[in-house]
Design goal:
single chain, 407 residues, mainly alpha, 21 helices, 0% strand, L-aspartate:2-oxoglutarate aminotransferase activity, NAD-specific glutamate dehydrogenase C-terminal domain-containing protein
């Protein structure tokens, strides 16, 4: 048992070192998230900024202007304080009373303890403290110190609700296998590639957790059912037949790039498909509410993506500056509005062309929106021609997309 305990401790040390290394390359882009977390910890009486030698707001402003962020030691201090705060919040929120999370307490103990006392561990008098400590370390070592505070600021959720969304997102997307796959070849691939793929997984989990937190309770429960994850995998397997060559080409190029860089083919294929995973959450929800098959809903959704040429709009929104939290919120709101508009249009197509042949559904919808569609295409063309489309231009383009309704 001693050797296994040592491995568990080293696993934690590795994870904490990994997130600090990842945080170094993300520090500049997360300077405002760090500012918010520092201020939250101060208001909660959990942090003395001067004592911990963390930057003042004025110093953070200067770092942001210079395109810099917190140093590794500063991030380590903030990570430690955020872990302590999160752990206390989870205990106060009643983590030990959560039937979905309590079984995860088994992971905290070595095999010999689980085999001998497995049935008794969930009755441990310190189960709340043990489970909160275990899941706090697991989450923060994977997602960083600002993840929970970001979810809370965006959705006004509790710490426990944010944790449950993280756990549900991980199960839904089977990210543990992605992390294990990357870590097993860490020494065989370029360090920058390794970190960039970890960041891609982080981004997907963050978006998925936010999506779950923003859904009605019934939709949230449905998305956490095993059949939902199975349907996502089925759609990913069928994706080549659901999207046209223009949308498929960048996914194929990314898979080839990762394979050439040394990743196994299966892992490269999964990582290359990450950008296509997030939309499938809404597609599956839509297919269930409209009583249409997942493949039919996905085919219409991706056909609209290509027909409306939404990818350049998404890229332009993603390139907007986020020098402060308000700019970040504006960018995130625009991206969410584009997603919502595409989903609403997809719903109209599915509902209004239920009797049409699959290949004719989009054409039938286009006839009913022709005047507005022409104006939208002209607006999108102007966005594509602009070297640096700003917030005003992209807001107008997004609003026109939202106004695209059939006559």
């Amino acid at each position: 048992m001693t050797d296994e305990v040592a491995r568990l401790v080293l696993r934690h040390n590795y994870g904490q070192s990994q997130i600090l290394s990842l945080g170094e390359i993300q520090a500049a882009s997360r300077i405002n998230d760090h500012r918010r977390l520092i201020q939250q910890l101060e208001r909660a009486g959990r942090l003395n900024r001067e004592l911990e030698q963390l930057p003042s707001d004025e110093q953070l402003d200067a770092l942001a202007r210079e395109g810099l962020g917190l140093s590794r030691p500063e991030s380590a201090v903030l990570l430690a304080h955020s872990k302590l705060w999160l752990c206390d919040q989870l205990i106060a929120d009643g983590i030990a009373d959560n039937d979905d999370l309590l079984p995860l307490l088994q992971e905290y103990f070595p095999t010999a303890v689980r085999e001998r006392f497995g049935g008794m561990l969930e009755q441990h008098p310190l189960r709340a403290e043990l489970l909160a400590t275990h899941l706090t370390n697991q989450l923060c070592n994977r997602m960083g110190e600002t993840f929970i505070s970001y979810l809370q600021s965006e959705t006004r959720c509790s710490a426990l609700e944010a944790l449950r969304a993280y756990v549900a997102a991980g199960r839904l997307l089977d990210v543990d296998s992605l992390w294990r796959g990357l870590e097993s070849i860490e020494c065989e691939i370029d360090e920058s590639l390794f970190r960039s793929q970890l960041t891609s997984i982080q981004d997907l989990i963050e978006r998925t957790a936010l999506w779950l937190l923003r859904q009605p309770q019934q939709t949230r429960a449905t998305a956490q059912h095993p059949t939902f994850a199975n349907d996502i995998q089925r759609l990913l397997d069928a994706l080549p037949g659901l999207i046209d060559s223009e949308l498929q080409a960048p996914l194929q190029r990314e898979s080839e790039r990762l394979t050439v860089a040394g990743l196994p083919q299966a892992l490269a294929d999964r990582l290359a498909l990450l950008p296509a995973v997030y939309p499938l959450l809404s597609v599956l929800t839509l297919s269930r509410s409209s009583n249409q098959g997942p493949e039919a809903a996905a085919a219409v959704y991706f056909a609209l993506e290509g027909e409306l040429q939404l990818e350049p709009l998404r890229r332009a929104i993603a390139s907007l500056p986020e020098r402060n939290l308000w700019q970040r919120k504006a960018r995130a709101t625009l991206a969410r509005e584009v997603d919502g508009a595409q989903l609403q249009i997809c719903r109209w197509v599915l509902d209004s062309t239920a009797d049409a042949a699959p290949g004719a559904r989009l054409a039938q919808w286009q006839q009913s929106t022709d005047p507005l569609l022409g104006n939208l295409r002209q607006t999108f063309a102007e966005v594509r021609c602009s070297e640096t489309p700003d917030l005003a231009m992209l807001s107008v383009a997004t609003r026109e997309l939202c106004n695209l309704k059939p006559f």
